Amino acid sequence: xxxxxxxxxxxxxxxxxxxxxxxxxxxxxxxxxxxxxxxxxxxxxxxxxxxxxxxxxxxxxxxxxxxxxxxxxxxxxxxxxxxxxxxxxxxxxxxxxxxxxxxxxxxxxxxxxxxxxxxxxxxxxxxxxxxxxxxxxxxxxxxxxxxxxxxxxxxxxxxxxxxxxxxxxxxxxxxxxxxxx
Length: 181
Prior knowledge:
A four-stranded parallel β-sheet has the order 4-1-5-6, covered by helices on one side. Strands 10-9-11 form a three-stranded antiparallel β-sheet. Strands 2-3 form a two-stranded antiparallel ribbon. The protein is about 25% helix and about 20% strand. The protein has helices at about 40-50, 65-80, 95-105, 155-160, 175-180; strands spanning about 5-10, 20, 25-30, 30, 55, 80-85, 115, 120, 125-130, 135, 150.
């Protein structure tokens, strides 16, 4: 079973053409730019390498509207399932372009749940400065610095972006060994 992984070239935190998780998993990926035709890329890959059974797109929030439409063609015309992973909103609570059209056109949505430091479901992301205060202005995309982004609940997002408190720059890690005793 062959899977192809795509990742936006602009996200080079793990190196161009690499995807990596926070727990240490990593893999090679085909790096793409905003103006690349993803349908043509996938079609050429299938002709050159053979059948493709799954396409995984990392950091899908960085897709353009046209690229999301091209991915629907990968599903509809090439019969290749597409799994895409990414953020829904930016640090201002605004939808990313890729996320907007994935939400509109996806056949199926599965949310990966994250927990806020308050214990509530985290649905928003806050960009913080070195003191843990929310940054509410600036460019939508700022690559790198995972420690500057904190997943929070909507209620916590409202408080933090209103200037009510600070967030820890480093989220506490669970001690699984202690919890399993």
